[in-house]
Amino acid sequence: MGWFWADTAASAPVAPHPLPRGNAEPPPECPMHKKSVPPVVAEKTPQGACPYVPPDNASTSASPSATAPPKQGLLARLNPLNNMFSELSNERADTQAQALPLDRERSTIPKGDGSLWEYPSPQQMYNAMLRKGYTDTDITAVESMVGVHNFLNEGAWAEIMGWERRFSRGLAEGYQVCKKGEEYANYSLGTAEDPFDTTTWTAKDIPPPKLLRFTGRPTEATPKAQMLQWLGWAMPDKYGTAPPFDRHDWFVERCNEKGCKEVRYVIDYYEGDAEPTGEPVFFLDVRPAVDGPTSAAERLIRSGTDVWWRASGGVAREIKKLEAAKKAKEEMNARGRQYN
């Protein structure tokens, strides 16, 4: 919901939020993933692993010569942890030219047991690239790759938290939160200053959401992404944009007074135009998957109420109410002073 970390408005037709400037730009040599191997959801993820779920048939003995050479460009260099192996070695590789950090960064994303997911160390990332056949990976780029990977995961979770804050108690309360548009919703939820806060959870009687499992599906376009590509073909000036470079499904546990259930979220990753300084810009389109009428209603309520509120002049009406209330208060104070 919304563009993800972009300083300026982009023409791509998904909702953005700006990417902070910094030195986490992934260099051109960073590979991403082999798109020729469709991923599947694993039944079990090791304790403390990255929130990516590997396929069951991931081979650990694949010969680099038998693997297709990595693609170049953003598709090939941004997200190397799709279809990751179940166990990531933290030992230095035999052919490794220089040492890499072994420390793993702890995320803000809770697992089903309440602990937090951990991201892979740069050494684990590099070893995984070697196991997948990317023997030409620039070792000096690995730390930047890990930083971008971790940052985008945190951004995806921030978006999911925004959905859960609105709809964790059900559609009726979600509508009450959303009915005056996004700005009012963030204000009422206490996230007006930072709508993408990944840790604040104000509900005292229900637990915050948890990420149960996670899978990458880069070869399977979502229906929304396909529709945007069709619109781009028909009206390139308005909707023309490159397709998502990646797609993930996150399975989240939502608990309320009625119990707990699993909610699937879909995430499309887009590339934006680079900043004048050369820094990359990425956009996330995060929303509940339409697995039933409830998730479809959530998407309709959140987008529909925001559009209607702005189109119907809701902001102007609220300003008039505030001005009328302020004027009435001033008149009351003036009468009070006159009486004294």
UniProtKB/TrEMBL annotation:
PROSITE patterns found in the cross-reference section = CYTO_HEME_LYASE_2
Q: Where is the composition biased (Pro residues)?
A: 15-30
Role played: Lyase that catalyzes the covalent linking of the heme group to the cytochrome C apoprotein to produce the mature functional cytochrome.
Compositionally biased intervals (Low complexity): 58-70
Where is the segment annotated Disordered?
A: 1-72
Any one of the GO CC terms: mitochondrial inner membrane
- Chief location of this protein? mitochondrion
Task: Write down the chemical reaction(s) this protein catalyses.
Answer: holo-[cytochrome c] = apo-[cytochrome c] + heme b
Task: State the organism of origin.
Answer: Clathrospora elynae
Q: Which UniProt keywords apply?
A: Heme, Iron, Lyase, Membrane, Metal-binding, Mitochondrion, Mitochondrion inner membrane
Subcellular location(s) of the protein? Mitochondrion inner membrane
Descriptive protein name: Holocytochrome c-type synthase
Q: What class of enzyme is it?
A: lyase
- Known EC number: 4.4.1.17
Q: Which GO terms describe its molecular function?
A: holocytochrome-c synthase activity; metal ion binding
Q: Which PANTHER family match?
A: CYTOCHROME C1 HEME LYASE, HOLOCYTOCHROME-C SYNTHASE
Concerning Pfam families, the annotation shows: Cyto_heme_lyase (PF01265)
